[in-house]
Amino acid sequence: MADSDPLEQKNTIDGTVLVVEDDEEDIFILRRALNKSPINLDMDIVQNGQEAIDYLIARHEDRTLSDLSLILLDLNLPLMDGHAFLKWLRNEPRFSALPVVVLTTSREPEIIKKAYRDGANAVVSKADTLEGMMRIVDTIVQFWFKTAQKYYLD
């Protein structure tokens, strides 16, 4: 039996990560970290909760939602913040099981508790350095794409 082409394997996408973030520096860091991951991921970016809703609905209507594997969500967003988006997501049967990791600069216990109450699967504090963020993103990706079982959307 012939081995498969290594170039073909490299081009296979393991999943898509939706990043809901409005800070360009954080987007740059997340893109860099995801690109360095040994897991081949697509990254889609929206700037706020309303754009995230529009994105999910459009992908659902186009029947291209099945490869969406994870949402990385900032809480402090314009127009619709991360808390409001999480509440909407968890009350929407089509999307309620999507895993969401909140990335936040806050270390306030009440904000973290609220994110979990709103439906976050995990809340992770952003690191102060590029290297720290790279480690955090690598840990998140390893867990959600290698350790945890994927939830398959209908």
Taking the alpha carbons of the first and last residues, their distance comes to: 34 Å
Strand order across the largest sheet: 2-1-3-4-5
Strand percentage, roughly?
15-25%
Number of helices: 6
Backbone shape: globular
In helices, the fraction of residues equals 40-55%
> Structural class given helices, strands, pairing?
alpha/beta
Outline the low-pLDDT stretches.
1-10
Number of distinct beta strands: 5
Largest sheet: 5 strands, parallel
**Average pLDDT across residues?**
88
Q: What is the ordering of alpha helices and beta strands?
A: HEHEHEHEHEH
Radius of gyration: 16 Å
Q: How are the elements arranged and paired?
A:
Elements: H1 6-11, E1 15-20, H2 24-36, E2 41-46, H3 49-61, E3 68-73, H4 82-90, E4 100-104, H5 109-118, E5 122-125, H6 130-147
Helix pairs in contact: 2-6, 3-4
Notes on the protein architecture:
The chain has 6 helices and 5 strands, in the order αβαβαβαβαβα. Residues 1-10 have low confidence and may be disordered. The N and C termini lie far apart (34 Å). With 154 residues, it is an alpha/beta fold. It has a 5-stranded parallel beta sheet, sandwiched between helices.
